[in-house]
Amino acid sequence: MLDTLTKEQFITLRAENKSYTQIMKELQIGKNSCIKLNAELKHDIAAKKAERIQELQQQYQMAKEARIKKLGSTLQRIDAALEMADLSEMAPERLLDYKLKYERALKEEYVDPPAESAPVEITPEGIAELQMDLLTRIKLGTTSGQQAQLEIDVINGLQKSYEDLTLSEKVETLRTLLEDRSRITCKDI
What's the whole-number average pLDDT of the chain? Predict the structure, then answer.
């Protein structure tokens, strides 16, 4: 029986898409242990992957916030310069052009804050729910193209993780059946 620390490390490594071979080397455990842990902890692994994706989203959001602040600050300086400009001495069309460009850029950075909701289960239904929610927000125009692309990447990552886990489970089931069949055949001889 493996200790809790080893199980936690296994969850983390599988969430990072490490192979059984890599995990066996790092944790000093056998392949059968990897197979059993993967089946036993599949939901924890999926949750850890979702958590990692959420952390990436938060990092992205922080960078976006910094860009918005910088754009807003520059826009304020342009506004101040426009107010002080002597229109008979300066080319206000140039400052006005900058103002319009910065307002456009600032508007493109705006993204509705995500609605607080219960975490979606990493199942085909949960992934479909995320896709439909995104499609609705795209149709309503409440999500920018950049934000939609980011969310699509996240959803695709979740779907791939789910498919990887499902495929891994099926392969392990087949492997077990073949091993059992092989043992039965060997006993008959």
Answer: 82
Taking only the tens place, the pLDDT of each residue in 25-38 is 999 999 999 999 99
Per residue, what are the HEC states of 160-182?
HHHHHHHHHHHHHHHHHHHHHHH
pLDDT band, residue 63 (cuts 50/70/90): confident
Distance (Å, whole) CA 123 – CA 9: 23
The CA distance from 65 to 71, in Å, is 10
CB neighbour list of residue 74: distance below 8 Å, 6 or more residues apart: 102
In contact, 78 and 95? CB cutoff 8 Å:
yes
At 132-157, the pLDDT tens digits run 888 888 888 777 888 888 888 888 88
Rounded Cα distance, 134 and 140, in Å: 10
CA atoms within 13 A on the CB side of 62: 6
At 139, list the tokens.
């149709």
> Is the distance from CB of 158 to CB of 50 less than 8 angstroms?
yes
Q: Give CA torsion, residues 6, 39, 24, 55, to 10 deg.
A: -60
- Evaluate whether 138 touches 147 at the Cβ level (below 8 Å): no
Instruction: Assess contact for 109 and 71: CB atoms under 8 A.
Output: yes
SS3 label, residue 19 = coil
Evaluate if residue 168 carries a pLDDT over 90. Answer: no
